[in-house]
Amino acid sequence: MIKKCMAAVAITILMSWAVMAQDARTVISNASKAVGADNLKTIEYSGSGMDFTLGQAYNPSSPWPKFINKTYTRVINFETPATRMDRIRMQGENPPRGGGQQPVIGEQPQNQTVIVNANTPWVNQLEIWMTPYGFLKAAAANNATVKQQTTGGKRYNVITFQGQNKAAVNGYINEQNMVERVETMIDNTMLGDIVFEALYSDYKDFGGVKFPTKMVQKQGGYPILDLTITDVKPNAPANIQNPQRGAGPAAAAAPAAAAAPSQKLADGVYLILGGYASIAVDFKDYIVVVEGPQSEERASAIITEAKRLIPNKPIKYVVNTHQHFDHAGGLRTFVAEGATVITHQVNKPYYEKLFNAPHTLTPDKLASAKKKASIETMTEKKVLTDGNHVIELHHLQGSGHNEGLVVAYFPKEKILLEADAFNPPAQPVTQTPATISPYNQNLVDNIARLKLDVQTIIPVHYPADGRKVSITELMKVVGKASSN
Ligand SMILES: [Zn+2]
Fold first, then answer.
1. Of the four listed, 127, 152, 406, 452, which is most buried by Cβ atoms within 10 Å?
2. CA of 335 to the centre of ligand 1 (A)
């Protein structure tokens, strides 16, 4: 009896050893065969669903705002490697709530092309390498390792390889040899090191290839994409070309130039352009900068220009219009510079957390400086003055764009700096659009409520032609003649 037991134990040990000893190569090979990745050179998949814009939430505790993807098609060439995505996007939040180009009127076509070369940032390649097939191909080529893991009562072979950003890329292979989840860490300017995960389920057979008909991607804890796939074409033609220069969103998304040309708006008041607009004001003993947007590169350019215009004074304050990442992405750089951040009180706990968040993948100036952030808050109104200059900060009540949206009004100069309440088009507005944006209307309502005598608007998203935007243009977009 004892002998029998011993034999059983020995067999059990041997069997589990056999499972353990299944090396990464075998696990990848079995999974590749099971999903049909072996002879897959290209794939095209399409369906519909939703995307959600990272960093554009209505407030710091709400998820990323939703957009309908009426159609979504992605083609991937694993050999080039390259990928192209085309989708038709529609408004998903009704009424509009949050950023990300809301409100979308009608149908908005979007596309994205990535052709991988030696300089392609790793994060831009992940749409290829985080698909089940891309993951298996990248794992096979990058000395992957394997371990067994039980999660939620299910057993997985977890395949791991190191991404080009030095973060581990983990793929969870289930007992049917399907890739259920791929996860890694990426850098985000605002959030620091964040998890990027892709979840795959409801695999179905499409011409010999098993493809997940449910795909969900998450970043920063919330979904950024949620698709139902209805059509898959294995080895579809995939001759992916770069879009023509100067056309399409790829051109619009070109990184902001480091140059920050400026112009004088009034005595001691300077407009800094070359990216998102900021205003620098020469206070008696220090500089106030309104808006620290985009990135460390952009914030550094603004800081350099502000100090050139106003020498020998420290930047004591940076005013933040709202917490959307494109408007707050330079704040960490201002904190490293020693500036106090002025923001709406709804953002304070969020910013305290973010200014301390680890940025190990791409350390920035604040990560190196390890400076403690100083934050001053406001609710409805805050006035900054040195007895000469006056900056009135007002909360835009009832904004659907952002709960804590703040504008800066310069009463002496009759200038209003605003972000995302009115983003004027490249050319001057000459007629009222068929659909009036509730965000534009809200700005007009707040200007009236606060009885602000505005002549000039400084949109943080400054119009491409560099024109001076007058109150008349804002009144035009809401169908009102100017009261001035
Ligand atoms: Zn915004």
1. 406
2. 21
